[in-house]
What does this fold into?
Amino acid sequence: MLTLVLTRHGITPAGGVMLGGQMDVPLAPKGRIQAEALGQRLAGVRIDRIIASPMLRALETARAIAAGRPIEVDERLRELNYGRWEGLSYAEIEGQDPALRALWEADPATTCSPGGECGNDVAARASSFLVDLIAAELGSPSGPVVHRPPDAGGSRSVVSEAQAEAEGERRVLVVAHGTLNRILLCVALGVPVMDYRRRFIQDRTNLTALRYELGDGPDGAQLVLANDVAHLRARGEPPWG
It folds into this structure.
């Protein structure tokens, strides 16, 4: 069994004001605090591999979590390239390219930003990454890929760390980006890529976990945990929103 733990980097100086895309910016001080909080939450939890986007904000987040453990870098985890829209706010994009912005809002899977990527481009990168990760951690299936039938019960009893390790569970932490993560979730869960902005939220330094069994393809994941940011919440705050 492979448990893929997905997180997004901490906040950057621009926050949510602009489309960062492939602009290589560091974490803001608050972003470092967010990353450290996630690192504290995962302290003592066995993680077999940490793989990060090569972009600085993702690498800084990964280092805060890794606490000296090795970090692998994979180019396929880069954020979507927004081309000429990089560094612009949504209002500025609306002013410059209103027709293209409307098309992108309607179908970000097939509509590319000017000089940049579309969602399907990122989905191809994410799918390639998942295929290689599953093969490396679980081995390539000898026969056709099979998909597990739905589990009517839907829950798994608590498993101790010792039991999980004895059962051969592999755990891989991936540190990437908001759009890349949401599109990866579409690929992993069989959701149309055009719906990634409508169906998924990825808060900064959240915990999202996917589970793959031997024989699963990249779109055969089970969603175990989604957008959990309890480590950033104060007592009494709702765990959502």
Q: What stands out?
A: The two ends are 31 Å apart (CA to CA).
